[in-house]
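User: Some background: our group keeps a shared notebook of sequences we're curious about, and every so often someone picks one and asks for a predicted structure to add to the entry. Today it's my turn. The entry only has the sequence so far, pasted here. Could you supply the structure so I can complete it?
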Amino acid sequence: MKRTLVSIAFCCAAGLCCTAMAGQLVAVPSAGAGTIALAMIKAMAGDTVLVANGAYTGSVMLKSEVVLKSASAFGAALDGGGKGAVVTMGSNATLCGFEIRNGTIGILSSHGGNAILSCRITNNRESGIMCVGNAPRIEDDVIVFNGGSGIQGWNLSAINAAVNHNTIAYNMNNGVALGGNSNMILECNIIAFNQNEAVKTLDLSKMSMTNNDFFKNGRTPNAQSSNNFSLDPKFTAPREGFDFSLAADSPLASTMSGANVSIGARFPH
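Assistant: Of course. Here's the predicted structure to add to the notebook entry:
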């Protein structure tokens, strides 16, 4: 049975990934749940765990059917301490609003129904997001400066593998890399300045790519449709302040405005 929501004001203050939450809101830190690990023990299916701003070191096991949410965009940082996956997701779980950093892998997802929303995933030694079999919904994320690929997948189905409105840039391997019998839907992403391929896959015909911007990667997909772009996004301050918004003079911004389409992550960064 889902429990009563106990802190509506705290939830609304976050202003992030707003969805109806019927379960109890477990605040971290609080008198009853001083750590994320303890909050995961206490949380039940349908609950939301809201994490106050600050840095939290160590790996997180995100319980199935639980929402783990930062109180503000990138306000709470999950730091893997240099080893392992920073976040390992159960099934039908949601991760929202965090900075995920300094792990071997940023986020590991291999179960169905997961969502990774409005996160900044950076400075992990290997891939930013690793997904196997069941792909999460990946939307409005900034996936940058990882030592491997931004997103790495294996045997993914396009039914579940929708990757929309992300900024995937400056990763040391590929922007998106897929192995096995994978297909994927890519829509409205900026995939730029990755060292190797923008999209690496065994069979490009299985990819659906629309309204993406591929710019200055080591290699861009050969089979781009006329609905994709190759324009300098002109990020505002990507290295100085992790600001991946588009500068006022960005040719991509003016093109998108004329087409009435938004592209890249859609929240303040």
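Suggested note for the entry: The helical segments are 8-14, 36-42, 238-241, 251-259. Confidence is low (pLDDT under 50) at residues 1-15.
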